[in-house]
Amino acid sequence: MTPYRFIGDQDTALGFRFAGVPGDIVANREDALRAFQVALSERGLIILVLTEQVAAWLEPEVTAHKLKAGQPYIATVEDVWGNRAKTRSMEQLIYEAVGVKILEQK
Q1: Quick one: which of 27, 48, 79, 101 has the most CB atoms within 10 Å?
Q2: How does DSSP classify residue 20?
């Protein structure tokens, strides 16, 4: 079992599979919700990667899970069609995934 899992569209999933990350291909909210629930029940899963579209479909569920501050940590990535929202820095992505703010030391 791998500590990583991906949920998203077919094209983006292919790229993750080439990198050795297994996942689920979903086309709508219902499929995404089922895959999300299965992923959350997996033992040993540390990072769950969602495309922006999947994260939008599952916004209430993702927010509720993040508020629990438990594993798996959830990271949101662009799909193969690019960014669907405003651009976020790496620091913002880390904060969203694990709740840790990275500050510059001057």
Answers
A1: 48
A2: T
> For residues 102 and 91, what is the distance between their CA atoms, to the nearest angstrom?
6
> Tokens for 72?
């798996």
Backbone angles phi and psi of 104, in degrees to 5 = -75, 140
- Gyration radius (Cα) of the chain, Å: 14
Closest residue by Cα to residue 49 from 94, 5, 95: 5
The pTM (predicted TM-score) of the whole model is 0.73
Q: List, as one string, the DSSP characters of 26-73.
A: -SSHHHHHHHHHHHHH-TT--EEEEEHHHHHHTHHHHHHHHHHT-SSE
Report the C-alpha gap between 33 and 7 in whole angstroms: 10
